[in-house]
């Protein structure tokens, strides 16, 4: 069973950048499609971006398109989320997620992922 561990969160001013990392262990990383989600206080967990097993296909939420980029390094068992032009509304706990299965939908629902990290806090000040 794969384990996921996020890092790279923190406090940043609006307009700044952060890069989140999610390192996995206990599984063959290249067999997992990966996603990033976020959850703000009092809100449901929402999709941010996902990436295919090879890294050749990515898909992002409209709210982050042009600002956030998902990527992966299969040799390092790591998926990244580069976040630029951060806004206060990006403040949330960010989670990475993994699935070995095929997506029943677009891969944007938390229910489509079996494995989750503990999350890393991102706070954007205005």
What's the structural blueprint in terms of helices and strands?
Blueprint: E1 3-7, E2 10-13, E3 18-25, E4 33-39, E5 46-51, E6 58-60, E7 68-73, E8 78-83, E9 92-99, E10 115-116, E11 120-125
Parallel strand pairs: 2-11
Antiparallel strand pairs: 1-3, 3-8, 4-5, 4-9, 5-6, 7-8, 9-10, 9-11
- The helix/strand class is mainly beta
What is the CA-based Rg, rounded? Answer: 13 Å
Summarize the amount of helix as a percent range.
Answer: under 10%
- Report the uncertain regions: none
Query: Can you summarize the main beta sheet?
Result: 7 strands, mixed
SS field, number of helical segments:
0
Q: What is the count of β-strands?
A: 11
The average pLDDT score comes to 96
How much beta, percentage-wise?
Answer: over 45%
Distance between the amino and carboxyl termini: 40 Å
Dominant shape = globular
Query: Helix-strand pattern, N to C?
Result: EEEEEEEEEEE
How would you portray this structure in words?
The protein has 126 residues and is mostly beta strands. It is built from no helices and eleven strands. It has strands spanning 3-7, 10-13, 18-25, 33-39, 46-51, 58-60, 68-73, 78-83, 92-99, 115-116, 120-125. Strands 2, 4, 5, 6, 9, 10 and 11 form a seven-stranded mixed sheet that branches. Strands 1-3-8-7 form a four-stranded antiparallel sheet, with no helix packed on it. Strand 7 (68-73) and strand 8 (78-83) form a beta hairpin. The relative contact order is 0.30. The model has no long low-confidence stretch (mean pLDDT 96).
């Amino acid at each position: 069973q794969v384990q996921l561990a996020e890092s790279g969160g923190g406090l940043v001013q609006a307009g700044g950048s952060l890069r989140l990392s999610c390192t996995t262990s206990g599984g063959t990383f290249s067999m997992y499609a990966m996603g990033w989600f976020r959850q703000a206080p009092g809100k449901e967990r929402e999709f941010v971006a996902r990436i295919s097993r090879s890294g050749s296909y990515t898909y992002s939420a409209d709210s982050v398109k042009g600002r956030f980029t998902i990527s992966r390094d299969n040799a390092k068992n790591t998926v990244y989320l580069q976040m630029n032009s951060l806004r206060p509304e990006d403040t949330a706990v960010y989670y990475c997620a993994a699935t070995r299965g095929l997506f029943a939908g677009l891969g944007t629902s938390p229910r489509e992922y079996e494995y989750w990290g503990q999350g890393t806090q991102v706070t954007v000040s205005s």
